[in-house]
Write a structure and sequence with these properties.
By secondary structure, the chain is of the alpha/beta class. The chain has helices spanning 5-26, 28-38, 52-61, 79-88, 99-111, 142-147, 149-152, 200-214, and strands at 69-73, 91-96, 118-122, 135-138, 160-164, 171-172, 175-180, 186-193, 197-198. The termini are far apart. The model is unreliable at 24-38, 203-207 and 211-215 (pLDDT under 50).
């Protein structure tokens, strides 16, 4: 039986691909590297739920509308995303590294019948692109808020960032809301609008740092 040249090339190609795949699957080092690359990193924080009344004020303070796209970074049980979708009809997305919380969020969205608007993913929020997002909500440690500044600054002008308890160091909030509950607990909510306004202290530090380098 004669084999035409094009058919022979195709067969050789598939044999080479199969050999490469076999090498990846049988080499322990390659398999470990593959698994490590696909495995999500550990969460930065432990989940602490934002009280529902604080969630409502965050949404109202950001003036979330149906046309907005909202991202909650570190979304926990999904309450901010679900509440925003339910109250305004906007498309809202929650991102968390904890697979269990992501599944819980999806179940909560189904329970509230907003699964068509509220989406949850197990994903590192430092890998996200925010240029198309109009509202971001945060309940993270201060250092994480600061680390997110370069990404948040890429949001379109007029976009809103709302943080719970911890502000964004070096950036002046447009509005600060103080909530005092009957149980004696207090909460702070900070609203920022892009482009951000650097705090006076940050500007001074930059100028003095620049002068010092020039000397």
């Amino acid at each position: 039986m004669k084999i035409k040249l094009p058919s022979l090339i195709v067969i050789m190609f598939f044999l080479i691909v199969a050999s490469l795949l076999q090498g990846i699957l049988t080499d322990p080092r390659a398999s470990a590297a593959w698994a490590a690359e696909k495995k999500p990193r550990a969460p930065d924080t432990h989940f602490i739920a934002t009280p529902h009344d604080v969630v409502e004020i965050m949404i109202r303070l950001a003036e979330v509308k149906k046309t907005d796209v909202l991202y909650d970074l570190g979304s926990g049980d999904g309450r901010i995303v679900i509440s925003a979708s339910k109250k305004t009809g906007c498309r809202a997305y929650g991102f968390d590294l904890d697979a269990g919380l992501v599944e819980l969020s999806k179940a909560n969205a189904r329970k509230e019948r907003v699964e068509s608007l509220a989406t949850f993913e197990q994903k590192d929020f430092f890998d996200l692109v925010l240029s198309h997002v109009t509202v971001v909500t945060l309940y993270l440690f201060p250092e994480l808020n600061v680390a997110l500044i370069p990404k948040l600054e890429k949001m379109r002008p007029g976009s809103r960032v709302v943080t719970h308890d911890y502000g964004i160091e070096g950036i002046d909030p447009d509005v600060t809301a103080y909530i005092h509950r009957k149980d004696g607990r207090s909460y702070n909510i900070y609203l920022y609008t892009t482009p951000f306004r650097q705090s006076s202290l940050t500007v001074l530090q930059k100028w003095f740092g620049k002068d010092k380098k020039q000397q």
